[in-house]
Structure to design on (950 residues):
C-alpha cells in the first residue's frame, strides 16, 4: 500500500480543503436548510471520482445521491479539480469491477448547530486548531464520507483498477430519522444489491483503540403536547385554570422513575437480557469509564453504575429521553404567565423487539390509563434496530484492515448505543453491515465544537484502502 | 360634574392620542428596554399638568417618577401641548391643597410582548379596532396612569382648585416584582405620607359590574435549575449520563399533585381558611364562571370547581405555577440531544403568613429531603400580600364614586388574585389602599392583544373626577 500512502500524503492539503468545502455548506435537515446545495456538492465530488451518479428523488424529501463504480464506469468522466493530481496511468484505467460489491452508506445532512454561543469558531466556517478541524458535520459525517471518496481516488491512483464494485448511498435525512430510506431501499432492491455494507460512524474509543460496531439501536422520536387556555394568561389565574406545563410534568413523571427505570406499562417486558455469551463479549470490551465521565464533566453514571453493568445498560437497554421541553416564558428574567401550551420532545433508543410502532402504542395506552387522554402524542420518526454477526466477510475484512492500519486488534461492539437507518439497507436486504470510521470521544457529535483529528482523518483514508483491498480479494 | 364631563368630551381625541404616545414607547423592565425614555415621557406629561416632578433614582434600577400637586404648585408651570385646551380661568388657579392627601400608585413598565406572532397588530403600535385600543401596556397600566393624569387636568379645568393634595408614585419595576420599592418607601416615609392610596389595576368583571379590590396577594418568583453533563450530548448517552430535564421533572412532580394541591412540606399549614364572615363576603361576589371559562377557552376549572368553592381557592389560596420550562432543543423539528441544563420558572402567589422568604426556605428543605440537593433555587423577586378593611375613607369614597358614575353598587373583593408591591406603600406606611381602574376580563393583560375599551377609558376619567371630589370633601 506504499503507493497509496504516498498519494495520500502528496494530496493531503487538497484533501482537507475538499472536506472544508463540504463543511462550509450548511445542510440542516431538521430545518430544511441547504440540502439541495449539499446534494449537488456530493454529486460533483463523486463525478470527479469517475463514478456514475444519480440524484434519486424521494417523496417530499431531499434526494438520495446514488453512485456506482460499475462496469460502465468510463474513465473519461474523471474530472479532478486539480487535474495533475491524478497520474496519467490512473486516468486511463477502468474503475474496477471485481467479484464483490461493497455498499457504502453515508448522509450529507447535519444536526442544527445551536446553541451557537457555545461554539469557539462558527459552525459552518471550518477552522483548524491544534490538529483538529472544527465544524458542524466534520465528524458526523462529512468527514467519513470524504475519507471514503478520497480513499477510492487514492486506490485508483495507486493501483489502477478497484478490486470490487462500489455503490454509494448518500442520503439527506439521517438526522431526522431517514423517513424515506426504507421505501427507497424497497423500491431499489436490485440497484442496491451488495455483499457487504460499510456504514457511517465509528472510530476510536477513550483509550485510542479502533472500534468496529456490528449494529445500531432503533429509535422512536415523538412530541408530547399539552394544552390549557386558548392563550397565555396572567399567572394569577393559576388557582383555577389548568396549566399544561404541570400536566406535562405529571404525565412525564409516570414514564420513568428517579432510578432511571422506564415505567411505561409493558415497555420493559420486551427487552431481552443479554445471554451469557453476549455478556462475555461485553466483558471483553475495554470500558474507559473514568475518561468518559471526565470528558462529559459528570461525577458518576446513572445509579452509580460501573463496569460491565454500565456497559450492559448502555448497549442492551432502551432509553426514554427528554430531548427538549418548552413551555411559557423561556427568556432571561421573569414573566408571570400561565402558559397555554407545553411540549416535550422525547426520544427512545430501541433494542430488538421494541419497534417504533409498539412504543407509540404502549405510550398511548399508558397515558390513557392514568387520565392523560389530553396529552397529545405527535409521532416524529422511527427506525428499527439492526445487528449482524461477526463472521461475515465484510466484518472479517473490517477487522483485518484494522489490524493492518492500527497495529492491534480492534474492539468489537455488538451494537452502538446510537441509532441509524441500518435496518432497511441491511437486514431487510440481507446485506450484513459494519460500522467503522474516524470519530473519537472528544468529537462533540451533535454538540457545539464538533471536530475531527486530522491524524485520524488520514489514518481513516488508509483504513478504507486496506478494507477495499481485503474485501475485494474475497479472501 | 357637568363642566368636568364636557371638558373630557371636548378633549377626547387628544386624550387618546396622549395614551397612544405612552403605549408607543416600549418599556419592558424584564429586558431593560426603553425605561429611561418612558420615565421621561411620564415626567413631561406630569409637568404639563403643573405638578412638581422628580425622577428619584433607585439603586441599580430605573427611577421612580414622583410628583405632587403641593402647596408650592405654581400655575405658570402648566404647559399643555395644546394650550387652548385649558380655559383661561383654570390656568391662573392654584393646583389645590385640601386637608387630605391622596397617594396614587402606578408603574410605567410593561410585560414582554411575546409571543409576537399572536398579536393581530404590533404590540407597540397602538391600534383602535371596534372601540378598543390594542397595545402592550394599554391596560396594565399606562391606561390607568393616563386616566388619572387627565382626570386631574379636567378637574382643574372645570373647577379650578383641587380639593386635596395628590402625590404620584410611578415606578418602572412593577413587572419584575418592584425590587427597590420597599427601600424607596422606607427612605421616603415623610414624602409619601397620605390619608389614602389609589392603587393601579381594577375595572369591570365578566358581567360589566365595576369592581373595587381591597388588597393584593404576595408573590415569590424563582427559578429551579438542574445541570447534567458539561455540554449537550448525543442522546444515545442517556443510558448512563444523568439528564437534567428528567431531574427537574421528578423534582417538580413532588411540589404539586395532579389535583393541584401544593405538596411542599409545611407549605399549606400556613394558609388560613377564610372565616364564616369572610365566606359571606365571598358569597356576595357575583362570579360569572361560565363567561370566564368561555373567555379562556377551557371546559372546566381545576378539579371541576365551581361557585364559591372556586372563588375561595382563587382568592384565599396560594399558587405554585410553572411560568416557563426550558431544556434542550426547543425549536421545530427533531434533535436527538441529551440536554446539559434544565430551568423552570416558578411563581407562587402568596396569602398572608406566607412570606417570600418562608417559601424559599420551605422549598429548599422539601427538595433536600427528597434527594434533590442538586437542584439550584435562584430566587428572583418577592412581595408580601397586603389587605385593608372596607371602612376606610378612601374605600368609602371609592365605593360612593362608583355608585355615582356606574349607577350601581360596585362589587367588592377582599383581595385580587394578582400581586403587587402594595405592602411597602400601604401596610408598612399605614396608608389604606384601594384598587379601581379601567380593565375588563377581555383585556388580555400579560398576554398577546392586550387592550382597553375606549368607553371604559372615558368612564374611568369621570370616576377619578368623582373620587377626587368625594375623598377631597373629607365626608
Amino acid at each position: 500500500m506504499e503507493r497509496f500512502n504516498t498519494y495520500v500524503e502528496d494530496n493531503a492539503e487538497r484533501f482537507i480543503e475538499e472536506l472544508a468545502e463540504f463543511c462550509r455548506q450548511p445542510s440542516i435537515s431538521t430545518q430544511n436548510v441547504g440540502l439541495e446545495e449539499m446534494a449537488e456538492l456530493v454529486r460533483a465530488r463523486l463525478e470527479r471520482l469517475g463514478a456514475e451518479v444519480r440524484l434519486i428523488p424521494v417523496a417530499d424529501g431531499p434526494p438520495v445521491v446514488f453512485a456506482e463504480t460499475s462496469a460502465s464506469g468510463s474513465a473519461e468522466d474523471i474530472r479532478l479539480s486539480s487535474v495533475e493530481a491524478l497520474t496519467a496511468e490512473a486516468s486511463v484505467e477502468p474503475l474496477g469491477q471485481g467479484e464483490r460489491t461493497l455498499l457504502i452508506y453515508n448522509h450529507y445532512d447535519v444536526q442544527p448547530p445551536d446553541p451557537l454561543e457555545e461554539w469557539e469558531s462558527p459552525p459552518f466556517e471550518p477552522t483548524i486548531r491544534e490538529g483538529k478541524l472544527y465544524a458542524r458535520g466534520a465528524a458526523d459525517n462529512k468527514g467519513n464520507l470524504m475519507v471514503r471518496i478520497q480513499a477510492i481516488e487514492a486506490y485508483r491512483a495507486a493501483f489502477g483498477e478497484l478490486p470490487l464494485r462500489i455503490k454509494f448511498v448518500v442520503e439527506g435525512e439521517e438526522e431526522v430519522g431517514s423517513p424515506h430510506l426504507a421505501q427507497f431501499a424497497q423500491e431499489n432492491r436490485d440497484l442496491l444489491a451488495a455483499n457487504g455494507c460499510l456504514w457511517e460512524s465509528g472510530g476510536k474509543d477513550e483509550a485510542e483503540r479502533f472500534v468496529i460496531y456490528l449494529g445500531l439501536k432503533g429509535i422512536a422520536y415523538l412530541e408530547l403536547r399539552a394544552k390549557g387556555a386558548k392563550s397565555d394568561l396572567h399567572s394569577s389565574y393559576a388557582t383555577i385554570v389548568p396549566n399544561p406545563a404541570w400536566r406535562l410534568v405529571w404525565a412525564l413523571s409516570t414514564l420513568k422513575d428517579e432510578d432511571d427505570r422506564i415505567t411505561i406499562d409493558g415497555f420493559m417486558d420486551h427487552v431481552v437480557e443479554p445471554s451469557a455469551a453476549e455478556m462475555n463479549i461485553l466483558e471483553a470490551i475495554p470500558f474507559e469509564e473514568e475518561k468518559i465521565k471526565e470528558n462529559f464533566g459528570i461525577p458518576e453514571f446513572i445509579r452509580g453504575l460501573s463496569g460491565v453493568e454500565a456497559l450492559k445498560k448502555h448497549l442492551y437497554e432502551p432509553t426514554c429521553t427528554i430531548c427538549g421541553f418548552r413551555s411559557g416564558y423561556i427568556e432571561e428574567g421573569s414573566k408571570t404567565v400561565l402558559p397555554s401550551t407545553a411540549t416535550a420532545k422525547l426520544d427512545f433508543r430501541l433494542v430488538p423487539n421494541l419497534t417504533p410502532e409498539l412504543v407509540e402504542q404502549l405510550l398511548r395506552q399508558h397515558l390513557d390509563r392514568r387520565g392523560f387522554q389530553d396529552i397529545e402524542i405527535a409521532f416524529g420518526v422511527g427506525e428499527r434496530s439492526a445487528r449482524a454477526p461477526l463472521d461475515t466477510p465484510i466484518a472479517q475484512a473490517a477487522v483485518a484492515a484494522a489490524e493492518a492500519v492500527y497495529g492491534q486488534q480492534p474492539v468489537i461492539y455488538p451494537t452502538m448505543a446510537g441509532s441509524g437507518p441500518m435496518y432497511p439497507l441491511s437486514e431487510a436486504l440481507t446485506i450484513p453491515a459494519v460500522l467503522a470510521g474516524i470519530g473519537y470521544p472528544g468529537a462533540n457529535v451533535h454538540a457545539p465544537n464538533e471536530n475531527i483529528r486530522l491524524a485520524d482523518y488520514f489514518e481513516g483514508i488508509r483504513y478504507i484502502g486496506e478494507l477495499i483491498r481485503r474485501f475485494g480479494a474475497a479472501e
In short: Chain B touches chain A through 88 residues (CB under 8 Å). Chain B has two domains: 2-217+386-472, 218-271+317-383.
